[in-house]
Each structure stands twice: as structure tokens, then as C-alpha cells.
Amino acid sequence: MSRRLVLGVLAALLAVAAAAVAWLNVRGEAPIPPDARPVAGTPAQVARGAELARAGNCATCHTARGGAPYAGGRGIATPFGTVYAGNLTPDESTGLGAWSPEHFWRALHHGRSKDGRLLYPAFPYPQFTRVTRDDADALYAFLRSLPPVVQANRAHALRFPFDAQPALAVWRALYFRPGVFEPEPGRSAEWNRGAYLVRGLGHCEACHGERNLLGATQGGLELDGGLIPMRHWYAPSLASAREASVADWPVDEIVALLRTGAAPRGVALGPMGDVVLRSTQHLTEADLRAIAVFLKSLPQVERPAPAAGPVTPARLAEGERLYADHCAACHGAQGEGAEGLIPPLAGNRTVTMDPPANLVRVIVNGGFAPATASRPRPFGMPPFAHTLDDDQIAAVATFLRRRWGANAAEVSAREVTRFRAAASD
Amino acid sequence: MRVPAASLALPNTARRAVALLATVAALSAVRAAPPPVQDTIAQRVAACTACHGKEGRAAPDGYHPRIAGKPAGYLYHQLLNFRDGRRHYGPMVYLVDPLGDDYLREIAAYFAGLDLPHAPPAPPTADAATLERGRRLVAEGDPARRVPACTACHGAALTGVQPAIPGLLGLPRDYLSAQLGAWRSGQRRAMAPDCMAEVAKRLAPGDASAAAAWLATQPVPGPAAERLPQKPPLDCGGVAP
Q1: Does residue B30 carry a pLDDT above 50?
Q2: Cys-Cys with A291: which of A65, A127, A176, A194 at CB 3.0–4.6 Å?
């Protein structure tokens, strides 16, 4: 074969691949009608849109710290660089002021901006694609009802090649398909409502789903847990009894966790506290019950416990001494906690789950439970970042993972170093 | 139905035995379990005192300042400043992020209400000329650069003014100097108009360090003043009575 022929075949293959990628990126997209214009929604749409925006927790990413709500500017750190959330207020030049409902729908459903650019999936359109057109229109109506804020969008700071639209097109061709939520006929209306909220606007999968090397959540069991990129919090699996499964929780306790941030068998920590504070505490009782019913029904998996491995008696003794000096006064000599005030550590799944990211983060940074309307004066766990070094934190964490019936693997000082390195903010 | 009192009476020896048993039981209970966690504001804010020292008396590291006894309005504004992006110390931001205004006000009032003795000031760490430069700047300002005296806002005794102007005494030199530096660079901000940022930017090189050096050597003579005798020289966000 001549060299020219080989090159020709390669070029043809590339052209076919490019065409496939291009086609996969516009498949199913209706063209925007030329007369598409911004419209004002009805008061009912605005009110429903406000509720939906809370269900989707839109404000958390689309509001800079101390900034105007929904005016964007917050940076979302990803392994590929920082993506800055856009201005959703109806300002003509810097926000969504010139967007029609069709443009908004295309962004939510197809992940494409008004000017045709592909959107980065830090905006969770792989989940939002399941939102109905009616709900998208209500969200649009709510956003249009906000006071317009002049605040130019900040350019993303992504590394090559992730900053290039063709790279994003390839990613989308591999991992994104526009979808609709199909109710499961064998299930109750309540279950289907819960599934719609969890899989769609709630975008629970964005944290509780495992991501591959290219940052895509896909395949495997639903909500089976994942380490949140860059933030070093582990969003535990709702499919595993050893992690965050609620299959055997009463519906009321799941609702209580989502409403108040605390339940008899668990509290919302870190990013989940934020979700409770800014999103789920505001949902209606009916929606919270629907979510609970759906979460209880998730397929479960029984995995053998990971090998716990040996720990030297000296290491356990060191952890025990540190526990007695720094922890027992509040958490109790037997890790029993104080009912309604201080969480128990004995039998606590956060202590034993793998990776031990959350345990380390809580010891390092401490933290308050979310100050929800029903628990506005939470207790705060003291941060130990200045009191204990990485090796001591590893020792006390290891002690907790081997006492009171627990038998989880030792935590190493290296793991502590790794998990505490994430920004605490 | 009423039980006649006499039927509850026990012979003296039996009563003594019961009392003894009760005492033994109480003592062994004390020994077996640590004191139960109390539902108090002090317990709720254990996250604060981990770094700011017991009851907010300041940590020995010179980095985490005393918060006990500072004016409540000042403390409240700092909590808001951390939560709302005007101050940027990550661990503080993380702690106050999920808390609401009312709770932050309660936390501020709790620490403001703690009246605890101050430790004696640290021995001077600067030479006499620097200390004198600092003293003059604090007492007289620098009219040439339109820098007001610290006393013009922070009170003649520099102990702060209720409800929202902090005192400048009883703080380590490193902390004071770091705050002035942070204000100059915009790293620390307050509600607009941000008078302290304005003052910090007017300072000559070396002024902040000299003022911090002198302030850190002064004992704390008493609590914050109730009011300023005159109008402050600059408009300040959040401190109007």
C-alpha cells in the first residue's frame, strides 16, 4: 500500500469519526424557531419554578459567596480546571435576558448554550435532561422574574484540551444522551415522583454516582457512591447497607434527614449538609416522602467487607489515648454520643466506610450541622487541624474503626494528608 | 389514696444503710461516666473555642485572636464577613457557612458577654524608635497622609466602642500587623463604606508594623466605651449606632 493511500484512509476515518461526533451532538435537537423570544411566565409558573429551582439547588452553584442570588460567578473546581457558573438573572447583556424558553429548554435538555456552544457538564445536564418541558418552562419563568443583575460571566479556566469545544463534543458523544423521564408503569405515582426528582432536578447522581477518569457518571448500580472530585468528600452509596443505604429506614426518618439535617441513624455532613440547607429542607412534605419511597427501593448490593488487615496494639493504644484526651468528653467513653446533641461514633457508618474521607474531613475541619428551620442552633464539632497532626488523626481514626464492634481498615497518615489537602471552603 | 407517713418510716439503721448505698451508687456513677454533655451555648460553640482558646480567650499561637468580651456587633459582623465572602480564612468560612443570621447573632452575644481577665501584654519586640513611631501614629495619626488617630474611632482608651467597634489592645503583634496588611491588600474587607480599608491604604510603609508593635505592648485598661465622644472621621459600614 502506498503511503498516500494509508494517509487517505486515515483522513477518511477521521472525517467519519468527526461526523459521528458532530451528529451525536445535535441528535434529537429541534432547531430554535426564528421567532423565539423571551416571554414572561404566569404567576403560577413563577411560583412553581421557584420550588423547582430549590429542588435543583440551582442557587448554590449560580451564586458567588456574598454575591447576588443566581448572578453566577462561583467557581466549580474539577479535575480539568475550574468551571464558572453563569449569570441566570434576566439581564439583557450578561444574563439570560435575551433567552427564549426554547433556548432555556435546549440548555437544560441538550446542554447547549444560546449561542450554540456546548456546555460543560459541571452544569448537570446529564441529569437535568430528564426534566419535563413544563418544568423547564416554569424554571424559566421563575428566573425571568428575578431582578436583573449586571454581572459578566467569568471565563472558565480549563486546561488543554478540555478547554476546546471539540474535546467536549467527543466527551458528549461518548457519555451524554438527551433523555426523558419515563415513568415506570409498575410503580406508584409517589415512587415515580421520587424517581423524577432524584434522577432529574435533584441530580443526586452528580455526587453519589462514581465518575470515570473523564468525569462521567455512568453504568453500574444507581447512586452507588463516589468520591466528589476535588472536594475530597465521599458521597456514600445508597445501595450498600455499610454506607448510606436507607432501605431499612422508616420513611419518616429519611424525610427527617432531608428536612432537618439529622435523623436517628445519621446526620448530613459536608456537601450533603449544604444540600439539606439550601435545597431539600424547602421541599414539600409530599416530595420528600416521594424521594424517601424511591430511595428505599433502590437495588441493593451486598459486598464482602474489605479486608481490615492488622493494626499493632501500640497504634490502637495511641488512638485510644488521643480519643480519651480529645473526643470522649463529648462522644462518650464508649462512643455512645449524647442523644439528640452529639452523634454516636459506635455503629456509625461514617466512621467505618471506605474511603475514610469523611471521617478525616470531620476530624480535621469539624463543622456545624446545617442550621435548618427546624434545627436553627446546631452543635459544632471542633476542628482538630491545629491540635492533631496527620499521624495522630490517623491513629484516632484507626482506633474508632476497630472499637465497639467495628472492624475496618487502618487509616494511614498518608490518607489523612491526602484528604485534608482539599480546600475546606 | 394517701399512704400514712408512718408506713414509710424505716428504723434508723436501715435509713442510714439506704443513705450509704445511695451515696456509693452516686459516687460510682460519677466514676463510670464522664459528665453528660450539657445543652448549653458553650457546648454548641465548642467548634469556636477549639482555635480561639478556652472561652474565646485567644490561642497561644498568636494567630487566633481573643473573641471573649469584644463588642457583640463587631463579632457578629465578622461572622457575616466570613460567611459572605468579605473575609477569607477557609476554616472559619467552612464553619459559619451553614449558619443563619439569628444564630450568628446569638454566638456573637455569647462571646461578647464573657468578661474574663486579660493576660499581661507581651514584652516589646521592637526598638524604642519604632515603638515611639507606633505610639504617635495611634495617638495622633498622620495628618500629612490623612491618617486619623486610632483613638478617633477605637476609643480614647483603645478598648473599642459599643456596639460594633473593636478594641485594639490585648492582641498579639503578629495578628494586628497581619490584619492591617490584609486590609491594605483587600484580603480582609468590611461592609461598605469600608473605612478601615481606606485608612490601611493611606498608611506609609512601616506604619502598620510600628503601630502593631506598640499596641501589642499595652495592657488592657477596661471594657469597651459606651459611645464615641465625637463623630468618627470616616464613614464606616455597619458601625453606625
Answers
A1: no
A2: A194
**Nearest CA distance, A364 vs chain B (angstrom):** 10
Cα A174 from Cα A324, distance rounded (Å): 52
What pTM does this model have?
A: 0.89
* ipTM (interface predicted TM): 0.92
Which amino acid, residue A364? V
User: Which helix (H) or strand (E) element contains residue A78?
Assistant: strand A75-78
Looking at the fold, whether A73 and A161 belong to one and the same domain comes out as: yes
Cα gap B91→A367, rounded to integer Å: 9
Q: Quick check: helix, strand or coil at residue A366?
A: coil
What are the distances in angstroms from CA B129 to CA B124, B138, B212? 12, 14, 14
Contact criterion met (CB < 8 Å) for A384 and B50: yes
Task: Say if residue A161 is preceded by a cis peptide, omega within 30 of 0.
Answer: yes
| Facing residue for B98 by CB, picked from A273, A332, A386 | A273
Q: Cβ contacts of residue A370 below 8 Å, gap of 6+?
A: A261, A268, A273, A274, A276, A277, A281, A378, B98
Residue A170 sits in which domain range?
A: 34-175
Average pLDDT over residues B221-229: 93
Q: Which residue of B has its CA nearest to A339?
A: B37
Q: Which residues of B touch A67 (CB under 8 A)?
A: 85
pLDDT score recorded for residue B12: 54
Asked if residue A234 lies in contact with residue A357, where contact means CB atoms within 8 angstroms, the answer is yes
CA proximity to B62, closest of B11, B23, B119: B119
Q: Could you tell me if A38 and A171 lie in one domain?
A: yes
Please check whether the domain covering B41-112 is classified as CATH 1.10.287.90. Answer: no
Residue A329 cell numbers, joined: 468528653
Buried b / exposed e over A266-304, threshold 16 CB at 10 Å, is bbbbbbbbbbbbbbbbbbeeebbbbbbbbbbebeeeeee
- Tell me which of 2.40.10.10, 3.40.920.10, 1.20.1080.10, 1.10.760.10 is the CATH number of domain B128-216: 1.10.760.10
DSSP assignment of A292-340 equals HHHHHTS----PPPPP-----HHHHHHHHHHHHHHTHHHH-TTS--BTT
User: How would residue B13 be classed by pLDDT, with cut points 50, 70 and 90?
Assistant: low
Query: Do B161 and B227 meet the contact criterion of CB atoms below 8 Å apart?
Result: yes
- Taking 50 as the pLDDT cut, the residues of chain A under it are none
Q: What is the DSSP letter of A14?
A: H
Q: What is the DSSP letter of A342?
A: B
d(CA A77, CA A72): 14
Report whether pLDDT(B3) > 60. no
